[in-house]
Each structure stands twice: as structure tokens, then as C-alpha cells.
Design goal:
This protein has about 260 residues and is an alpha/beta fold. It is about 40% helix and about 15% strand. The chain starts with a helix and ends in a 12-residue tail after the last helix.
Length: about 260
Amino acid sequence: MNEAALHELLSQVADGQLAVKTAMARLSKLPFADLGFARVDHHRSLRAGFPEVVFCQGKRPEHVVDIFKELLSHGSAALGTRASHEHAEAMRRELPEVHYDASSRLLRSPRAKLEGERPGPVLVVCAGTSDLPIADEAALTAEFLGCHVERLCDVGVAGIHRLLAAEETLRKARIIIAVAGMEGALPSAVAGLSGRPVIAVPTSVGYGASFSGIAALLGMLSSCASGVTVVNIDNGFGAGYAAALTLRSVTHPSPDPFRRHEP
């Protein structure tokens, strides 16, 4: 249930097109549906502007499918993160319209096209090709949540001239997501060049002393550049969501960007 769906329901009651008893029956399922193994939050879109997102890792494939079905049955688009090929195969059998991206490990249902201009651009800057899966997760999340997204790949500080050559692109962005492993220096350089808010994403890419992303995390948290905010290691989803939420709060787009696409 999102704001537009609730508005439509109340309008039907006001116009006499829908009985109060029927409307009450629909609303009785709010704010969540208890599936036994999960309680699906149908109020999330009303409260936060975005529907509940399904973290698939550790969940049985059939449970992920059932949660998606519950979300879609209430007119919401659905997004699943950290999905495996087993999750994707189960989804393909039950909900073939849901798309799986193997790089980002995202499951995405079809959704209606936004009216008007998308907020952004959100620029996703990636240090190296090894960081692409996390950058993909960030970019596709922000895109799914209604943002105009642009990409800048393989511009790590080991070849700083590649980043310097893109300074104009950096300055055109509204908000930047900088994804890097190793020592995690990229966000500081991006923030210093762009003058834009930067969401830094440390990745687990690197040799032994990088400690699976801890070195990059600490480097980003210790950034000398102003305006750098840091999310958890490999948390491309968190960065994409934060960017979309930030732009939404500034631009005030349509209250109904997440109605499920009806074929």
C-alpha cells in the first residue's frame, strides 16, 4: 500500500464506487501481512516513500518468492538484494517478470515509468573493475528508486589522471557514490574535485592487509575531504538507497513513483 493506492481507495469510497466494508477489509491488512516466516511491511512506502526491500541472503528461495508475491499483490514494486542464482531460478519459475542481475545480485520487479524528470544525476564512480559488482548494486538500486544514474568506471587513484579528466562530469552530478577497495582513497579525491556530497562505499577487494575492506572503511572514515559519508563494506544497496532518499527529500517528486507496472 502506497500513498497513491491509499488515495485511490479513499476516493472510491467518497465517490460511492466502493463499499466502506470492502475498503475496511483491504485496510485491515495494514500495516503488515504475517506470512508465518516473515511479516511484510505494507506501510513502508507510506512512511518512507519507498517500499520494503527484501534482503535475500540466508532466506529460502520459496520464502523470497512468497514475499515478492505479497508485495506485488498490494500494487508495490519489489526489490531484492543479495540474491543467489537459486533465488533467481525460483523467481523465474513463479514470477518470470522479475529480472535478476547476476553482477549486482539484485532482483527487480517491473515498475511504472516515472512522470516528469528523474532526480539526479546520481554519479556512481568506481575505482577498479573488481569493484563493479558493488557499483552495479548501488547504481541499479538508485535507478530502481527513481533516480537518473550515470556511471564512471575504472578511475582509481593509481591512475589519477583518469579521474582528473572527468572533473566536469563530477561537477555536473547532484550526488556522487564512490566505490573503492584497497586503501579506499578514491572518495577523498572525488570530494576534493567535485564539491558534491559523496557517499563512500568500501569494498572487500584487496590483498591481505586490506582485511577484506576494513582498511578501505577506515581510510574513508578518516577522509580529510569534507562532505564524505561512509556506508558499510560492500553495501552498494545502502549507498544507492541513501542517494535516492536524499534527492527525494530535496526534489519532492510524485508521491507515487513505485506503483507496480501492469502489463
